Amino acid sequence: MSLDPQLLARLSTDPATRIDEVIAHYRRERQPVELFEALKMKSRLAHGLPMIADPDEPLLQGTTDAEKQRERGLEEDLLDACRQAGAMLIQDGRIAEGWMYLRPTGDTELARRLLEDVEIDDDNYDEMTQVLLHESVDLRRGYNAVLQHQGTCNSITLYDQAIATRSRTDRQIAAECLLTSFYNELLSLVRDDFRNRGPDNGVTPEAIEEDSVKLNLGELIAKYKWILGGGGYHLDTTHLSSTVRFATVIDDREMIDRALQLCQYGRRLPADFQYPGDEPFVDFYPAHAAFFSALLGQGVDTALRMFEQKARTVDVNVAGAGAIETYIDLLDRVGRPAEALRAAIELFPDDVPVQRVLPELLAMARRAKQAGDTSGLDALEKFSFGRNDLLAVAAIAAEKS
């Protein structure tokens, strides 16, 4: 873009005023990269440096208080320039470039707010999901975009490949998105099936009209067993099992109830469509149903006995520590953190480093302490000392004080 020849004549001769005029020009013309450079120049001028750095200018390594203060000022101004340029780029639809400028600021909340105003379409889908999901700016929106644009199968693959190793919070968010999407689609199909085949199965038009709206998935298939009585299914059964498997991290009670309904649906499928899982969920739908029911306060003791038996008998050398981890997790989540901590101390394999599980163990100990049981911290201290882990011993001292 050519500059107006008269612009030069209008620019001030004062350096500070001129750079402000240049900055205003780049704002008006929506030139974020040039705006970034102009803001850097303004900062250097304000801190007593040439606006354009000399090629041989040494890196700033302040030793005096004044020099250190100047460096802090330059850094703050640079981050502000990144914010301004990044915001303009995102507002102009240049998502990846905008995030490149915003990432150094660490201001994911600003990025999230800016991206709220950007509709995800086929043209920007890759950039938006990269920033929202893979850069963790807004995982929920990013994963929902994958569900909408790529479908359930690709979303499940993405979860296994990129989300399963992330934080519990991230896994919960993605699992809730998948569960909501799959449950709603399955419920819609089952309701349609109920409406279509209800008359042939002796259901009155009035009951069809009422129950197709009022009853949820679990209630429908429990009341009208013929819905799954013919040996068929309504939605991909591998997707069903994956959705249930991921849902074990979810804490929201309404979501857990939906996961339990999916188990109830899965248990009524023909045997060929009930695939075995990994320990302790080899008996896939019954075991998951017991797990979810316990989280909802139903059959807690029965479920704990079942998962304890798995934790104590499954060979960790063959099946890994999943049975132990599940039992401890369930104990903790049904409100028995002290028991969970004692079980962890007793059952965790000797080759598991204390540091790998210490954050979870300390969290359990804190919850037990809040409930009035401080014995967990003493037990954890002895356990860590017995494992020759003085770092853990030191951390526990802070919790006991």
Structural notes for this entry:
The chain is mainly alpha-helical and about 400 residues long. It folds into three domains: about 1-120, no CATH class; about 120-275, no CATH class; about 350-400. The chain is about 70% helix and about 0% strand. The protein contains 21 helices and no strands. Helix 19 packs antiparallel against helix 20. The radius of gyration is 29 Å and the shape is flat. The model has no long low-confidence stretch (mean pLDDT about 95).
Mean of residue pLDDT?
A: 93
Protein structure class: mainly alpha
- Amount of helix: 55-70%
Rg from alpha-carbon coordinates = 29 Å
Give the amount of beta strand, in percent. under 5%
Give a brief description.
With 401 residues, this protein is mainly α.
Short descriptors:
single chain; 401 residues; mainly alpha; flat
Mind sketching the topology for me?
Blueprint lengths: L6 H4 L4 H14 L3 H15 L18 H27 L3 H8 L5 H9 L8 H10 L4 H25 L4 H30 L7 H10 L2 H7 L13 H10 L6 H15 L16 H12 L4 H14 L2 H4 L2 H12 L3 H11 L6 H17 L4 H12 L3 H11 L1
Helix pairs in contact: 2-3, 3-4, 4-5, 7-8, 8-9, 9-10, 9-12, 9-13, 11-13, 12-13, 13-14, 14-15, 15-17, 17-18, 18-19, 18-20, 19-20, 19-21, 20-21
